[in-house]
Each structure stands twice: as C-alpha cells, then as structure tokens.
Amino acid sequence: MAKIQFFGAAQTVTGSCHMLKFGKRRYILDAGQFQGPWEIEKLNYTGFGFKPSTLDGMILSHGHLDHCGRIPLLQKGGFSGNIYCTPPTVDISLLILMDAAHVLKEEFVWKKRRLTRAGIKVMEPLFSLEDVYYSLELFGPAVPYGKKVGLAPGIDLTFHLNDAGHVLGSSQIVIEYRDRRGQKKKLLYTGDLGDGGRPLVSDPTPPEKDVDALIMESTYGDRDHKSYESSVQELEEAITTTVKRRGAVLIPTFALERAQEILYHIGMMKRSGKLSKRVPVFLNSPLAINLTRIYEKHCNYCNHDNFGKSRKGPSPFEFPGLYFTETPEESKAIHNVQGPKIVLAGSGMMTGGRIKHHLKHLLWKENTTLIIVGYQAEGTLGRKIVDGAKEVKIFGEPIAVRARVYTINGFSAHADRTNLLNYVKKARPKRLFIVHGEPRSQSALASTVRKVLPHTEVHVPRLKESFTL
After folding, report:
1. What CATH number should be reported for the domain whose range is 228-411?
2. Cα separation of 145 and 468, whole Å?
C-alpha cells in the first residue's frame, strides 16, 4: 500500500518535506528549512515528525534552503540512505548548507552576547559546518535528467527527473510504483516550477501524462506576474533613472538564480550602451559569487541559447565594472564609493546578510532606489517595505524609508497562477495535492482547479496529514 504524508510546506511556503511509503519502504521528497517569522522557524527545532533512521532514501528537487536546509538534521538523526539529485543540485546544496551553517553560528554568537546578559537562554545553532561535512557522503550518485533509477532492488519502484525550469539543476520528480493490486501508478512532484522564457535556465519540461497523483507548488496560485519583458524594461528604467540622479541602486537578491539573472540583464545593458561601462556593479554576497561560478561549471544545464553547450565567447557574467566583493572589508569599502553605483546583496527577503548594512546606510536617502525582485514572505523586513512602511528597524535602529521602492515580481523563479493552471490541466491528475503556498494562494488555486478539472480530487494537506494513494 502506498501512502503520502506531509511534513512541511503544508499550508505554508517553506520547509518542503513529503514522505512516501511503499510497503515497508520510506522515502522523502526534499528536507527543507522553515523560514520566516519565529513562529514558523521554530518548527526546525521540533523534529521532523518521523525518525530519520527509518528512511530508505531521499530525492531532492533543488538546492534552495527551504528544500535542502534540514539535510544535516537528517544525518544527525541517523539517516544513512542516498540523496538523489542532479549534478548541479549536489554542488549548489552543499554551498547553500555551508553558508547556512556559517550564518547560524554568527547569529548564535551575536544573540548569546546580547541576550545572556539579560538572563535569556539562547538556543544552539540548528547545525554546524561539521554536520554539513558529514552530510557529504549522503549525496550520490548524481542523476541527470531523464535517467531512470531503481530505488529498491527487486521492487518495481523507480524514479526519474525532469527539468523544472526554476533554478539551475532544479527537477520535477516522477516516481513509478505498483499499488496493492499490482497496477502501475505514477506520482509527479513539481518541486518548484518556473515560468519559462528565462535567459539562464531552460523552460520547464511539460508534465508527464497519465499522472495518478500530482504534488504541486502554489507560491503564486492566486495571481499572475507582470510579463517578463515589461519587468526587464522596468528594471532598466529604475537603474538608468537612478544613475542619472547619481544615486545608489540596491537590489536584494536571492543568491541562487535571481542574482545571476539580474547580473545577466545589467551586463546586457552595458553591452548595448544603455548603462555606462564606468558605473560600478558590486555582487556583494560570497554565496552568490560562488554560485555564479557553479553556472560556469554546469553550463550544459543552462539555457543553451545564452549560456550552454552552444555558447561562444565570454560568460554573460563578464562585463566592465563588475566587482565580486567577498570579504567583509570589501563590503564595507562599498560605502565609500561615491556617485552612482549598483549593489546586489543578500538576503533576498532582507532578513539578514549584507543587504541590511547597505539599507542602514542608504534607505533613508531620497536618491537611493531599492529594487525588490523576489518573493517577500509575511513577517520579513522586505514584506514590511513592500507593504509601505515609512520606517523600519535595522539592527535595532529606526531607519526612515525615503528611497524609491520598485517591486518587480516578473522576475520570480516561480510559475504564476496561469502557468500553474496550464500545467495541471496538461497533467490532468486523478488526485492533486497543493503545497508550498500561503493559505490564500492555495485556496484560490484549489478553487480554480476544481472548476476546470471537476473529476480531479483536490487536497490542500495540513502539516503531518496523511493520505493513502
């Protein structure tokens, strides 16, 4: 008998983790961190809801922290099976996890120094660099798109990966199994789906046919994005207008995909003459810098029109005036650069990282432009600014929001409502499980699917809810 149970991203966006049970065999799809306000993040410390040592394996859709961020906890809990994913996802996940361990340690030291004196006990970091190191041996063998892999010897249980078009190496996961009557069944997990038409990643592979169960993300299940072309145009206008005013452009970016995509477009502006080659561009994120180098290593997984097997000439990330600022000293030195400048820094939701230092120095200035190009979860600093806050606290200090704020959601790496709906209409699953979305977006998508596919059984699972497949 096949069952599925949801241990994350259930009526919330983060913490993706879904368990599949095939008789005595147990596998999970992703093991991500819960991110956002403390009432969500604290779920990382309450355990998985199952014993990691009982798992036979894991299939990882991609390397974002909300999908891979609890892998070290699996290892600490006794998991010893294989983690299957694409070659880029192996490299990306390890960089993401090492960076997360570093951030967790820094936050712990900072909180301990400040809160211990107030008599408040500080929780230990979720995991350490050593835990990430011990997780290395769990990865492998890496699986290219389309290769069918047997999960259990002697059992008709296989999977293969298709391109999800979300970030470099991201995958849709297709699992084929037999039910208790011996009939062949197919389960499809979208992971996170992209919109298509992007310069660096390929378009998502169309969904498999004859799907019995579809587990689908719903981040933007209640709304559509601006067109990509108009979003690029708005980005260019925001940058050129600010440069003319000799102001600073701040772009909080997610280190994976968004940073590289924005760099690509800034490079195109410089090559076409829309932006002076003398205007400095700072990629001020060690993680984003390292991930950008991974694009070079795995260019065969990129969009071949711009960056792949057929690419000739220089990398799209090489252009005049681009500086990779890795050290804290280099980061601080950016504050001394006068005149127009462009700074890309993490974190994407402005919850931490170097962007907060730049916001502290520049958010209160009227000739500063803040360009928000990614999803901002409820409760984050980024969401407060998007919602129109006139003043925010950064490092405990009140900072006025006088900068021009552009919110350009057309750069999202997630499929919007129309593309999600088109995807599920093509798949025509017998059962649909909607995950990875805030309640509003999940409810809206579920309602629409029930209208257009009345014969599909639609579920919006709760945390730890279980279903027989």
Report:
1. 3.40.50.10890
2. 28
